[in-house]
């Protein structure tokens, strides 16, 4: 017959605190010998010593012990900090911040004073990100601009990361032409195409039903110097984010092949682009190839990061741009920390679903922000819609104006237009 073994206590060799729970104590011997080991050490004390020599994500590898050696709750995730169990210095009282000392009695005092440097609150631990240099905390949604997910690599707070103002791309025509690989046509070729566009716009009837309304090509800015400024603003944003310019979907080795982009696999079917809209899309692509770009300007906002605004009035149903980037299987990106992935294909078999990943290669679409679709004010900002088309049997994603847009107005669309999976409640 077995009998219940009496719990014994031991003294932590470093902090000299008595502990009678074996799973929280580390020893050079086995866990059964830990009770009698006079040099047993609290794991949290070891963690405290090691945290000054390793980044947080490295510490999790060092201390990722499994039961019975260490309970999972004892691990502190990189974004997880216990709520304070005592009043924070130079901060509002714990009661005003909603702290509950009774419910946090099990919190580790070593991290009890971790709080967000912006809102001064230690609540919402899973969203409290710690700087890998100064160890200060910031809520993901308190950062400016906010972060969608926890970065995989090292992360440094605004104070430790230094100057964050992006370096401007030089306003030099040759550099801009080379950066965007612009193919300048002869003046003889350019003028007939412009005249052709004008004739097409006048040829339509005055009475047009909503169902038959066609997509419109964007109208570039007339001033060539202003167009250079627009392109330079995009080049600045691309360089600041380490992104290579691309105006087409790209299929890289190790990711989804082009053959996987089959619109026929779409669950419920995908709308086929009409002949007229196809011609408009081709026209927009050709205009961009020769340097006639959409009248858009990329600006840096301290709260929202890079944003895109109209540099001239844009009419409803105008094609703004195509959403491009590397095409990959959704299952390969489920744990990706990218904040700009776009659904390309929702297949019946989830393993065949595709996403567009603009983190390495992209165009201006990456910098168009999303609305806060949790508030009426946020929803009113939407002036673009995201539409997926079957174009010659392949899936393509277009951003289209869904109303008239004024000059200077920032562009927004609904990130959750297809799937309600993007957290936008903290968007400006």
From TrEMBL:
InterPro entries reported in the protein's UniProt record: ATXR5/ATXR6, SET_dom, SET_dom_sf, Zinc_finger_PHD-type_CS, Znf_FYVE_PHD, Znf_PHD, Znf_PHD-finger
Reactions listed under catalytic activity: L-lysyl(27)-[histone H3] + S-adenosyl-L-methionine = N(6)-methyl-L-lysyl(27)-[histone H3] + S-adenosyl-L-homocysteine + H(+)
Pfam families: PHD (PF00628), SET (PF00856)
Domain SET: 294-416
Region feature (Disordered): 83-109
Stated name of the protein: [histone H3]-lysine(27) N-methyltransferase
Tagged with keyword Calcium: no
Location(s), subcellular: Nucleus
CDD domains: SET_ATXR5_6-like
